[in-house]
Amino acid sequence: MSIKPRPCKTTTRPAKKHSARMQDVKFPMDHLTLGDHMVLGRKNRSRCHKYSLYAMCNLRGSHHTAVCKANRDQRHQGHWFLFDDEKVSKISHLKDTKEAHILFYMSPIVEMMPKAEL
């Protein structure tokens, strides 16, 4: 059995342009509460369902960056760092941004767990 090569077909239609809406994104740094959106048993209603932001992926055009909060290193605990390709820099504060693409939150219960349990 032999397979005959066939020419590749290409389309002449122009590619659709992707356009994202650039809007200010307001998001809580601490105390994101999801309790109103969860089905909880009577026993769990009093539990804390608050989360704190610990990382964010940003998108500007087609360029991604990340901002992460140091949590385990005592020297940098609580400080924010910007990861941009090979460059890492400490930033003074995190602000709401139009470039926020993905937000990562952590439960305070996970924050308090020792490293060995994670």
UniProtKB/TrEMBL annotation:
<dbReference type="GO" id="GO:0004843">
    <property type="term" value="F:cysteine-type deubiquitinase activity"/>
</dbReference>
<dbReference type="InterPro" id="IPR028889">
    <property type="entry name" value="USP"/>
</dbReference>
<dbReference type="InterPro" id="IPR001394">
    <property type="entry name" value="Peptidase_C19_UCH"/>
</dbReference>
<dbReference type="InterPro" id="IPR038765">
    <property type="entry name" value="Papain-like_cys_pep_sf"/>
</dbReference>
<feature type="domain" description="USP">
    <location>
        <begin position="1"/>
        <end position="108"/>
    </location>
</feature>
<dbReference type="Pfam" id="PF00443">
    <property type="entry name" value="UCH"/>
</dbReference>
<keyword id="KW-0378">Hydrolase</keyword>
<dbReference type="GO" id="GO:0016579">
    <property type="term" value="P:protein deubiquitination"/>
</dbReference>
<protein>
    <submittedName>
        <fullName>Ubiquitin carboxyl-terminal hydrolase 31</fullName>
    </submittedName>
</protein>
